[in-house]
Design a protein that fits this description.
The chain has helices spanning 14-24, 26-44, 48-55, 59-65, 67-80, 84-91, 93-100, 193-201, 206-214, 262-267, 272-275, 278-290, 298-305; strands at residues 6-12, 111-117, 128-135, 143-150, 156-161, 168-171, 175-181, 222-228, 233-239, 242-246, 252-255, 331-339, 344-348, 357-361. The protein is an alpha+beta fold. It has an 8-stranded mixed sheet. The chain has a 6-stranded antiparallel sheet with strand order 11-2-3-12-13-14, covered by helices on one side. Helix 8 runs antiparallel to helix 9. The two termini are 23 Å apart.
Length: 362
């Protein structure tokens, strides 16, 4: 039987969308909170109530970016019977962890591999955006999929962690986004990255999507890979006070969790050699393997995202026991293939080498 993630359809005002999210996905939200309670304690020695308090610093940043997101978070909290700060802390979980982790330690960030394909390189003339999300195995039970109908913004098909308002997906304007976490020293002041991801999905054009990523200071570094039904793909590496755009080569783009921009590396040290050294192998290997194909479709993308070269530090990573002191063990939680023309998302809710894909449509 094909494993599938929880799915819900939401509509209404931002608060109503959030309330429906919270009430329908309450058990997944509670599981997600339990994951981050443990992560905050294990990595920063901080209790959840302290993490909630720390998350309040992001309210003015989110309000100036898009106050609807705060209304949606309040709705999620009320729908799930939780404090607003519980949901705020989830939505700023990367930034709160950076703030609370001792300066001499490296903050864990979720790893992932992205590939985008332009129409002139694809088998059917469609644009594709594919993604492996690597994180802690416990997170597999807190992933949800949402179809959101908005009154004054594009409709959205999204896969996310329960209680979080933005992550990966495609909207009714044919704009899609995936992300790679980056690890740099920063003060964690700015807009949280999951709010920026929702800003991209609320965009009607790629130009607006770039604006959503770059017009406000971001709280931590991340890489955003975007694609459109018009056949365009490009990539934005973002650090708190700067960014760089990358364009496709031979109709393809790929990215993992290391900074490629020399300009940005001159400003911010790239800590992924300490936090997730598999990023270098995954970047090289995914790019080399995908370019072996003259024409690329879902089957070719799935084969690359299921690759086990240098396992367990591979594109498709499986859960394993720590092999050295202080190793943070990640594994592939899910794989998605977004077809921007059909506005569909193929999802594997397990490792792509062994699970079956199913399709959701906007």
């Amino acid at each position: 039987m094909t494993k599938k993630f929880f799915y819900a359809e939401l509509s209404g005002t931002p608060y109503e969308i959030g309330f429906s999210h919270g009430s329908k996905a309450k058990k997944y939200i509670l599981h997600n909170i339990s994951i981050y309670q443990q992560l905050f304690m294990n990595n920063a020695g901080v209790k959840w109530d302290d993490a909630k308090s720390a998350s309040r610093r992001y309210i003015p940043y989110i309000s100036s970016y898009d106050p609807d997101l705060l209304d949606e978070m309040r709705g999620i909290a009320d729908g799930a019977g939780l404090d607003f700060e519980d949901i705020l802390a989830l939505n700023a979980r990367s930034e709160v962890l950076m703030t609370l982790t001792p300066k001499d330690d490296i903050t864990p960030v979720d790893g992932c591999t992205n590939i985008a394909v332009m129409p002139d390189r694809s088998r059917n003339g469609h644009t594709y955006l594919a993604h492996n999300w690597d994180w802690k195995i416990e997170s597999r039970e807190s992933i949800i999929t949402l179809k959101i109908k908005q009154s004054d913004k594009p409709d959205i098909l999204m896969i996310t962690e329960a209680g979080i308002v933005g992550k990966f997906g495609v909207n009714s304007s044919g704009i899609g986004v995936a992300m790679n976490a980056l690890s740099t020293p920063c003060d964690a002041e700015g807009v949280p990255l999951h709010c920026i991801l929702r800003g991209v999905l609320n965009s009607r054009t790629l130009t607006q999507a770039v604006y959503a990523i770059t017009h406000k200071r971001c709280a931590c570094a991340a890489n955003y890979m975007m694609a459109s039904a018009g056949g365009e793909i490009f990539d934005c590496e973002r650090v708190p006070d700067d960014f760089e755009i990358f364009y496709p080569s031979d109709g393809l783009l790929h990215h993992t969790n290391t900074i490629l921009s020399q300009k940005l590396k001159n400003k911010y040290p790239d800590n992924m050699h300490l936090m997730g050294a598999s990023t270098f192998l995954r970047y090289y290997r995914s790019g080399r393997l995908i370019r072996k194909f003259d024409r690329i479709g879902p089957d070719e993308l799935k084969s690359v995202l299921a690759d086990h070269g240098d396992a367990p530090d591979s594109v498709c990573s499986h859960d394993h026991a720590p092999r050295y002191p202080d190793e943070t063990v990640f594994c592939t939680i899910f794989t998605i293939l977004i077809d921007l023309e059909s506005k569909t998302m193929e999802i594997c809710a397990e490792n792509p080498c062994e699970g079956e894909f199913y399709t959701l449509s906007l």
